[in-house]
Amino acid sequence: MKPLINPVKLVSISFIFSILLTQIPALHAQDDGLSGSELEKLQDRNMDYMVQINEIVKNYPAFSYSYKMDDGKIQDVQVTGVDNEIDRKKLEVVLFDLKSNRNKMKSTANRVGVFYSVDEEAAFEGGEEALRTQIVSNLKYPETAKNWGMEGTIFVKFVVDENGEIPFATTSSNIETSVERYLKDLEEQAIKAIKATSGEWEPAEVENVEVASLSVLPITFDFEKNPTLPALIR
User: N- to C-terminal Cα distance for the chain?
Assistant: First the structure.
């Protein structure tokens, strides 16, 4: 079975993302026991988890989930809308690991003050359905990519700052192709749609203080459904 994402490409994207973030003014970086490299490794692992989740739930439009917490620690994951028991068990394990990782990263900023895990996540002012509608309305499926038969999911990683604006966005994907320029067209469309929402976000909070945070949204280009937003994983 081919990997969902080329490992070399993931490393490259992660490295570029770390370098480009240095262009953002430093915020309120904290030291909570995790080094910068440890924080980045945990975030890379979280991206792998999100890719695995997306690959399963794309076949289950009724998918939903909830966490059982005790004193801030995850105890269990309840998955509904997934009929296949194997898929449901896989999702429970990966969602558990994802939440556990995020708890380890809680309230810890990277070296330029961007938080990967927060008390209150950045939220689109109109809610998730309004976000879906706005992003999809701003998306165009490039004809060149569609004619080539290119489809798949683009993961947009973007920073929402303390003002609810998006100063930076980059992508990774599960799309393998020999024509990189068509993939670039899809990535540019995804980033453009996300950046069109800049200024319409409520920033994340850590200990009741508004902070810059990293968000990840998957955008799927599909021949039958056209561009869509899969389930948003928190």
Answer: 28
Answer whether residue 214 is part of any domain: yes
What's the confidence (pLDDT) of residue 234?
72
- Rg of the chain over all Cα atoms, to the nearest angstrom: 17
**Which SS3 state, helix, strand or coil, does residue 141 take?**
coil
Q: Which domain holds residue 215?
A: 7-221
Residue reference for tokens 């429970």: 92
Residue 40 inside a domain? The answer is yes
Which stretches in the chain have pLDDT values below 70? 1-33, 225-226, 229, 231
Q: Strand 152-160's sheet: what is its strand order?
A: 168-173, 152-160, 213-221
Cα angle 55-144-57, degrees, rounded to a multiple of 5 = 10
Q: Is residue 2 part of a domain?
A: no
Count of residues for the chain?
234
When divided into structural domains, the chain yields a total of 1
- pLDDT tens for each residue of 189-223: 999 999 999 999 999 999 999 999 999 999 988 87
Asked if residue 233 belongs to a domain, the reply is no
- Which residues, in sequence order, are CB contacts of 57 under 8 Å at separation 6+? 63, 82, 91, 230, 231
Q: What is the pLDDT of residue 20?
A: 40
